[in-house]
């Protein structure tokens, strides 16, 4: 029998060991032989907004990254490199806060940075990192400007606005057509930073082309503590569909206010809804969450590794949110690139990321391929809250339920 310790390639190290390491913690799957680390180790920056208005998402992102780092280190580290030492940073939910952390991480000698979460933060921090040729792997930040500025150090793992909005509208049209086209009018409620404003601009351009009339687009700041006036406007105009584009706290408050004021359109259809695909929202406010649809980042429910990670996160008393599995995946991507680079060298790591073919996903992605910093294998999924759970409704290849549309009467 061939000895795995002698035949593991650098390319497949993380893809082969991640399930075994996760399973070792749960005792469900035998852990394979792992490579013993060589080298002095490497510092990896984990940058998230762990305080401020975006702190929940930031904490979740940090959780996903640190779980991946712990698994890699438990398996012996990265061949030829050694163990990963996380350097944790708090962007404080602002671009300036993120920039200050990039400066600190660069001074600390990190080989790369993972995270950022918010588009506005990622726009600033990737630019700052570029001054030092410091590889930056964006976890979420969906504004396409992040990867259209020609920054050679910037690699976005997840899909951006363009891909997500097209997928969302394709699926919305399919759902509406199958139901006999009952929905014709739309109102958009969005937060006013780079994320929400950029998405609202895209939707205003694309929804009319798909046969929908936009009655009004309502921006709001983050944080916002009261949505009563916004919901009164929705109630007065009575759109068939409400499209929210905001972060977690504001999304929850908007949905709860709509429920309290008995505003029930034919659909609440999110594009990157901050809470719509969140088990936390579903558990804490099941009535407000029921039947909400979302086109967002999601895990592959057919993937055993994704399900093992879900168990591990929930065993810690945490929710399995997209911030968790996206940052988990980003760390695995970096580790794979480091193993192929063969050295903790920024230039070599940038080159290894650019040529990545990483496939060790927990998400419904194709092989990783970066073109101008954007992962071409990344794709969103459509979900719907049904029966106090979150089901995948598109793509049909791994859907776990059929969409319920229009929403039934309260």
Can you describe this structure?
The chain has two domains: 234 residues, Rossmann fold, CATH 3.40.50; 152 residues, Response regulator (Rossmann fold), CATH 3.40.50.2300. The protein contains 14 helices and 14 strands. With 410 residues, the protein is α/β, with parallel strands linked by helices. The longest helix has 20 residues.
What's a concise summary of this model?
This protein has 410 residues and is of the alpha/beta class. The protein has helices at 4-7, 13-26, 55-74, 95-108, 119-130, 161-178, 194-206, 228-237, 248-260, 279-284, 286-289, 304-315, 322-341, 346-354; strands at residues 42-48, 84-90, 112-115, 136-138, 154-156, 185-191, 213-220, 241-245, 267-271, 293-296, 370-371, 374-375, 381-386, 389-394.
Give the key terms.
globular, Rossmann fold, 410 residues, 14 helices, disordered N terminus, alpha/beta, 14 strands
Task: Describe the secondary-structure layout.
Layout lengths: L3 H4 L5 H14 L15 E7 L6 H20 L9 E7 L4 H14 L3 E4 L3 H12 L5 E3 L15 E3 L4 H18 L6 E7 L2 H13 L6 E8 L7 H10 L3 E5 L2 H13 L6 E5 L7 H6 L1 H4 L3 E4 L7 H12 L6 H20 L4 H9 L15 E2 L2 E2 L5 E6 L2 E6 L16
Parallel strand pairs: 1-2, 1-3, 3-4, 4-5, 6-7, 6-8, 8-9, 9-10
Antiparallel strand pairs: 10-13, 11-12, 13-14
Strand content: 15-25%
CATH topology of the largest domain: Rossmann fold
> In order across it, which strands form the biggest sheet?
7-6-8-9-10-13-14
What is the CA–CA distance across the termini?
62 Å
Q: Could you tell me the number of beta strands?
A: 14
CATH hierarchy class name of the largest domain: Alpha Beta
CATH superfamily of the largest domain: Response regulator
The tally of helices reads 14
Instruction: Describe the main β-sheet briefly.
Output: 7 strands, mixed
Estimate the mean pLDDT confidence.
91
CATH architectural grouping of the largest domain: 3-Layer(aba) Sandwich
Helix share bin:
40-55%
SSE arrangement, N to C? HHEHEHEHEEHEHEHEHEHHEHHHEEEE
Structural domain tally: 2
How would the global form be characterised? globular
Low-confidence stretches: 1-37
Give the radius of gyration.
21 Å
């Amino acid at each position: 029998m061939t000895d795995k310790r002698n035949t593991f390639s650098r390319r497949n190290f993380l893809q082969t060991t991640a399930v075994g390491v996760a399973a070792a913690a749960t005792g469900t799957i035998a852990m394979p032989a792992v490579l013993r680390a060589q080298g002095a180790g490497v510092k990896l920056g984990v940058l998230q907004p762990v305080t401020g208005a975006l702190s929940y998402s930031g904490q979740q992102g940090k959780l996903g990254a640190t779980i991946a780092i712990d698994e890699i280190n438990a398996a012996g580290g990265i061949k030829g490199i050694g163990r990963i030492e996380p350097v944790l940073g708090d962007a404080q939910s602002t671009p300036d806060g993120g920039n200050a952390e990039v400066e600190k991480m660069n001074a600390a000698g990190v080989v790369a940075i993972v995270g950022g979460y918010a588009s506005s933060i990622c726009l600033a921090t990737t630019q700052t990192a570029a001054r030092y040729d410091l590889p930056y792997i964006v976890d979420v930040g969906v504004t396409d400007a992040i990867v259209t500025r020609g920054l050679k150090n910037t690699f976005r793992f997840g899909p951006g606005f363009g891909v997500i909005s097209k997928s969302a509208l394709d699926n919305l049209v399919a759902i509406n057509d199958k139901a006999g086209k009952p929905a014709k009018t739309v109102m958009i409620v969005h937060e006013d930073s780079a994320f929400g404003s950029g998405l609202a601009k895209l939707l205003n351009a694309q929804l009319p082309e798909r046969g929908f009339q936009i009655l009004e687009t309502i921006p709001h700041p983050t944080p916002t503590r009261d949505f009563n006036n916004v919901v009164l406007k929705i109630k007065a105009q009575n759109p068939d569909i409400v499209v929210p584009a905001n972060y977690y706290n504001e999304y929850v408050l908007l949905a709860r206010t709509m429920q309290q004021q008995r505003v029930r359109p034919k659909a609440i259809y999110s594009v990157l809804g901050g809470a719509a695909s969140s088990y936390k929202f579903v558990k804490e406010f099941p009535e407000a969450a029921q039947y909400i649809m979302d086109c967002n980042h999601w895990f592959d429910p057919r993937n055993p590794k994704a399900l093992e990670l879900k168990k591990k996160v929930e065993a810690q008393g945490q929710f399995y949110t997209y911030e968790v599995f996206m940052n988990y995946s980003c760390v695995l991507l970096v580790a794979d690139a480091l193993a192929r680079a063969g050295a903790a060298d920024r230039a070599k790591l940038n080159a290894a990321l650019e040529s990545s073919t990483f496939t060790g996903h927990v998400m419904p992605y194709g092989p990783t391929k970066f073109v101008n910093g954007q992962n071409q294998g990344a794709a969103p999924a459509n979900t719907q809250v049904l029966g106090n759970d979150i089901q995948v409704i598109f793509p049909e290849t791994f859907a776990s339920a059929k969409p319920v549309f229009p929403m039934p009467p309260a």
